[in-house]
Amino acid sequence: MAEQSSGQLLLGIDLGTSRTAVVSSRGYRHIIRSVVGYPKDIIGIKMLGKTQAFGDEALQKKSALVLYHPLEDGVIREGSERDYNAAFELLRHVVGLAAEGHEGKVSGIIGVPARASVLNKELLLRIASELLDTALVVSEPFMVAYYLNRLGNCIIIDIGAGTVDICAMKGTVPAPEDQVTLLKGGDYIDERLEAAIGQRYPEVQLTRNLVRTIKEEHAFVGEPDGPVTVTLRSQGKPAQYELTAELRLVCESIVPDIVEQLTTLIKGFDPEDQQDALDNIILAGGGSRIRGLPAMIADALREYGRIRVTVIDDPDYAGALGALRLATELPPEHWDKVGFASR
């Protein structure tokens, strides 16, 4: 490993709207919700015992905290000092956990949406350069492809909370025209599901976190295996509510845009490579767990010939592990050849 030869600790970080994953060259791995909480008042500070909380701890104690989700559509909210500061604290927290006890240099590669703006990449790099000796910002789907060692004639569809990133791999570092970012990811599904449940059952008490939990447990497209029934509360009293139609509708709502962009990217391959690409469409990210999604995408593309859509084995860590693999195989002094790098 690079750390053993240079004394440098290397990190791979997938900085996501909903969750942030970090892995290190000494075997550390951790996932945390991308949320930072600050006490509302002196009582909150006394209850918390500190001035900020992260991830699940912040969500569990949300009544005493002001919560910030600093990443919107997979990137830092531009022009918001509060979100910039929260993103800094979140990244400092995960880097600190991964580098605990390490006294040498720490360098890291961070994944961002495929078509994140130059300004946003620069914002993230500014934060990272304060926390890491060398930092690189690269495309998340490219990191998934690197983790899989699938660098040619394949298409990665990374379905995250803030975005869906689609990347055509052609044996080189992807060019801008080989990548697409759609703003209809998991958060979009959550928003539509909350509205659909509220319309059908206006008496039900909902929070966005509760809606997200329902989606993560039951999301599907196509024909359901059976009715989806969940326990919700109305006026504080629990009851069973059937949500099959609502879940199907909102989950399927992201498919047409994905298929449209896939068809565009497929045409960008050389004709003799197009069938290989169609045989190697790979779903990654949390949204890859939506039941029935591979079959629905394949069916929508059937006029293009034989289609094979598969789901990655480790959607939680694939992006971070790909970033770490790149960090390990490419010396930090050459990182600027594949993305935005600091020195």
Summarize the structure.
The chain has helices at residues 2-6, 42-48, 55-60, 81-98, 118-131, 140-148, 186-200, 208-218, 244-252, 255-267, 274-278, 293-300, 318-329; strands at residues 9-15, 19-24, 29-33, 36-39, 53-54, 65-68, 71-72, 75-76, 106-112, 134-139, 152-159, 164-170, 179-182, 204-205, 229-234, 237-242, 281-284, 309-311, 340-342.
Describe the protein in words.
By secondary structure, this protein is α+β, with helices and mostly antiparallel strands. Among the domains are: 2-145 and 316-342, ATPase, nucleotide binding domain (Nucleotidyltransferase, domain 5, 2-Layer Sandwich); 186-252, ATPase, nucleotide binding domain (Nucleotidyltransferase, domain 5, 2-Layer Sandwich), CATH 3.30.420. It contains 13 helices and 19 strands. The protein has helices at 2-6, 42-48, 55-60, 81-98, 118-131, 140-148, 186-200, 208-218, 244-252, 255-267, 274-278, 293-300, 318-329, and strands spanning 9-15, 19-24, 29-33, 36-39, 53-54, 65-68, 71-72, 75-76, 106-112, 134-139, 152-159, 164-170, 179-182, 204-205, 229-234, 237-242, 281-284, 309-311, 340-342. The protein has a 6-stranded mixed β-sheet. Strands 13-12-11-17-18 form a 5-stranded mixed β-sheet, with helices on both faces. Strands 5-4-6 form a 3-stranded antiparallel β-sheet. Strand 9 (106-112), helix 5 and strand 10 (134-139) form a beta-alpha-beta unit.
